[in-house]
Queue: 2 jobs
Job 1
Amino acid sequence: MIPRSVSLLFFLLFLVPEIATVSALIMARPNCAETCGNISIPFPFGIGTGCYMNNWFSVDCNETTAGSPSRAFLSSINMEVLEISLEDSTVRVYSPIISSGCAGRGANLAINMTKSPFAFSSSNIFTAMGCNNLALLNGIEPEIVGCTSTCGANNLTSNSSAEGKENSYCSGNNCCQTTIPSSLQVFNASLGTPDHPINDQGRNECKVAFIVEEEWFRNNISSPEVVKDMQYVPVILDWDMYYGTDIPEGVKNSDAKSCSRGSTTWGSTTWGLSTVTYSNSTTCWCFPGYDGNPYLPDGCTGMIRTRLM
């Protein structure tokens, strides 16, 4: 009979290779940087020639002042990257605030991601602030999307404190919100005063509009005062790869990974269409019990819990 201590030793030795595999997951292509500052850059995104799927996923890693981490930018749409999620097929970036009549603010920047694999996620919300602010999204005709904020006790130039967090104040007075169209790829906004406002205030006062990650807004913006000096806010972008030549070489349906190609059948499983409006789009993920990068050949690795089941 094998002593209990010996059995335990063999059991631990059995786990060691699996532990090493999980801790050494490869997320980028060989000889490519896996991070930029504090941001992980997994393939199909990449820094430098040969490290990304195509030009849409190219990331510029820009050095900053001494003591500050480098900053990552999607070079195709010039938006700063905050986080990339392979599991959710999303990238968190900074999006500009558009303003009118606000002293000291820079030039307004519009976002146009048409024909790219990126689109604003439904987890974002369109927000406008200011006294008698009629804010409309441009470039989405024939749709008309926008909202109107009236003049309450506080405005963007007041020093009054907030009534509280959780969006309680953003219900019409100096702040309004509305949902954005599905798979929106353009952000530009016009700001003005309604034709027949409740009162005649706010015509020359500071007005702003922006698309923002709704959860972040609820947790971080307690009053219009917080926003008036900001230039950017975080948003979530959905992303997909196109069906066809964009499928990474060596990536195929297997026991450890799966790639959805529109409504195409791979093996014995049929995968549904992606939620993004691009036809024949592609999304990959590791099956439960595996971890890693499904966009790399053999990128999904079995985890400890799978071996113990």
Job 2
Amino acid sequence: MEDILKQLQAVVAQYGLQILGAVATLVIGIWIAKLLSKSLGKVLTKRDVDLTLVKFLVSLVKIALITFVIISAASQIGIQTASFVAIIGAAGLAIGFALQGSLSNLAAGVMLIIFKPVKVGDYIEGGGAAGSIEAVGIFITTLLTPDNKVVYIPNSTLTGGNITNFSAKDTRRVDMVFGIGYSDDIDKAKNVIQSVLNNDTRVLKDPAPQIVVSELADSSVNFNVRPWVNTKDYWDVYFETTEQIKKKFDEQKISIPFPQRDVHMHQN
């Protein structure tokens, strides 16, 4: 027993301070890691970063800091940590190659959430689809199409091309084309179109609607009609204006031509 006690005393004398230092490093380091990750979460939350991204980044930073603390504590008691660092690096490299598609989507998701070119509720066209955004996630963005289909777009696909955001601005211009016959009165047709627009309270006065003759086509004289509306009224104004102008043209005996072909028969 005396020999055992002497050996224990020798071990404690030799490694006691190192063990205490390692334990202190571990306890204090983990406390600091939690504090830093918590502070990061508060900063990101104050900057209105998406909650999903906040949780992910906080967890990632916390794991990285705790891993660093454990390696530091192990080195204080004489454990060779170079091999552990090499193993972690090799594992990270292998995981990176295996998940390069997912990591690309992750990076794109972070960019979408931070810079917010689109947000939930926006109607967009991008990634080969068009619809209203239901969710912007870490890896995928979810769209709801007008015919109630759900489309899941990988974030890297969405950010890898052009994104058209139809909801980014409060107002939009409605572009319509109406044709009249060559024998019809151009000024009369313009007045009819103007009256339809004037009677629609959803059409904005500023900027003023544009009504211009745009083309002398094969069968018709075409008008470009471009009223401005609030974005939410776009489709209602588009459909209802088209219907109203057709009815007014009929009332005023203004023809809307359609392609025709004259066939002449010759007898030999």
